[in-house]
């Protein structure tokens, strides 16, 4: 029988709600991946990704697989056996970077910070001084497991000043907060479509600087992944009308990505960042009205991914289940050492709007009252209303 999924409101760590325009784009007629019209679309996607990343890098394209493949593409193309990479970890995804370094035959030097805190630049500087021959610094700009934003600009500058490459994960960052690849001098950057772009999962935008391209071109050994080898992929995603077949691109998914990027361009990058921040401030006000607190300090907190502390004695899984069953609302659980301690509430892309903020606060209030949590009914929504009124009057 055909599968008909329930209609959910997705306010977890991803995927986010898909804009209806993007769903319609998916349904357009499939054409060949070497059709001249599809080649034209590919060129437009590249230009739109350059806009989103704020870069002029020629090697900017969507990997035909999710963000994890974008991560692997960066590591397998740049890292060879014997290379040392300084890896910053303050959550789950820094740990995945470590695995990628080691699987590529490199050595990972770890700079560890507490989950919920930004990367400590002094610790990183010390690791650089202790490992002057390291090839790259790898870090997560927007850590999905904790809701922390680290200082990408400062980290990329440390890499440049010490003649090291920078490899940056901005899967949750792109379109939700500032990402300035050229301005920061980032060398290899990857993201995902299912977060603040509000596109369907399954595509990973990546971009490589000229310096990174030179490293890829002058490798001693072939890239160990044939599918992710940028030297081969650029034969398909390169310039000009003649393209060499590499793989069958996910045609309809790329229609969706094109539409998502078109929507972002229509809104404007700065306007998208401002919308995410405005809705975060309203959500924060509502959570405070429910007696809930945010894990991350305001100075390094992501507006699009909120780690919310679970009150003592509350069954956090039961709260999530109630939200899903009674409100068709999905929020996320904590990962790793934060499992059972936080909820992760996303306000990403199309899902970052006033209606969703109010739905979330209403539903959380009901779920907390059902577990006899003492709170003042209506206080959360009152604070949401006041926050929006304040921002509208600013």
From TrEMBL:
Pfam families assigned: Aminotran_5
Lineage: superkingdom: Bacteria
Keyword check for Kinase: no
Coiled-coil positions: none
Domain spans labelled Aminotransferase class V: 31-334
Required co-factors: pyridoxal 5'-phosphate
Binding site for substrate: 344
PTM annotation (N6-(pyridoxal phosphate)lysine): residues: 195
InterPro entries in alphabetical order: Aminotrans_V_dom (IPR000192), PyrdxlP-dep_Trfase (IPR015424), PyrdxlP-dep_Trfase_major (IPR015421), PyrdxlP-dep_Trfase_small (IPR015422), SP_NH2Trfase/AEP_transaminase (IPR024169)
A Gene Ontology biological process term: glycine biosynthetic process, by transamination of glyoxylate
Annotated keywords: Aminotransferase, Pyridoxal phosphate, Transferase
GO molecular function, one term: L-serine-pyruvate transaminase activity
Keyword Membrane attached: no
Family, as annotated: Belongs to the class-V pyridoxal-phosphate-dependent aminotransferase family.
Protein name: Serine--pyruvate aminotransferase
Native source species: Arenicella chitinivorans
């Amino acid at each position: 029988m055909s599968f008909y999924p329930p209609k959910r409101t997705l306010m977890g760590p991803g995927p986010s709600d898909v804009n209806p325009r993007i769903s319609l784009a998916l349904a357009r007629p499939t054409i060949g991946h070497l059709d001249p019209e599809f080649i034209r679309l590919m060129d437009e996607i590249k230009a739109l990704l350059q806009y989103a990343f704020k870069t002029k890098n020629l090697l900017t394209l969507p990997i035909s697989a999710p963000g994890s493949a974008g991560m692997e593409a960066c590591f397998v193309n740049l890292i060879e056996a014997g290379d040392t990479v300084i890896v910053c970890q303050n959550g789950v995804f820094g740990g995945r970077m470590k695995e990628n370094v080691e699987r590529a035959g490199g050595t990972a030097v770890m700079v560890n910070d507490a989950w919920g805190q930004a990367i400590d630049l002094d610790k990183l500087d010390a690791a650089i001084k202790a490992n002057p021959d390291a090839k790259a610094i790898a870090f997560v700009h927007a850590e999905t497991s904790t809701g922390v934003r680290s200082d990408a600009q400062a980290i990329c500058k440390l890499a440049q000043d010490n003649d090291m490459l920078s490899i940056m994960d901005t899967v949750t960052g792109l379109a939700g907060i500032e990402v300035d690849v050229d301005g920061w001098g980032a060398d290899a950057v990857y993201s995902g479509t299912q977060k603040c772009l509000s596109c369907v999962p399954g595509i990973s935008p990546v971009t490589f600087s000229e310096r990174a391209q030179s490293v890829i071109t002058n490798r001693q050994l072939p890239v160990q992944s044939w599918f992710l080898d940028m030297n081969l992929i650029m034969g398909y995603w390169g310039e000009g009308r003649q393209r060499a077949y590499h793989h069958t691109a996910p045609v309809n998914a790329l229609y969706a990505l094109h539409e998502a990027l078109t929507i972002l361009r229509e809104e404007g990058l700065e306007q998208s960042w401002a919308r995410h921040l405005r809705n975060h401030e309203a959500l924060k006000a509502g959570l405070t009205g429910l007696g809930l607190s945010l894990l991350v300090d305001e100075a390094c907190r992501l507006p699009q991914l909120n780690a919310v502390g679970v009150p003592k004695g509350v069954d956090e899984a039961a709260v999530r289940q109630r939200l899903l069953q009674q409100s068709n609302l999905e929020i996320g659980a904590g990962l790793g050492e934060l499992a059972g301690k936080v909820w992760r509430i996303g306000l990403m892309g199309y899902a970052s709007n006033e209606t969703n903020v109010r739905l979330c606060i209403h539903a959380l209030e009901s779920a907390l009252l059902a577990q006899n949590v003492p709170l003042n009914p209506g206080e959360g929504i009152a604070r949401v209303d006041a926050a929006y009124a304040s921002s509208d009057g600013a």
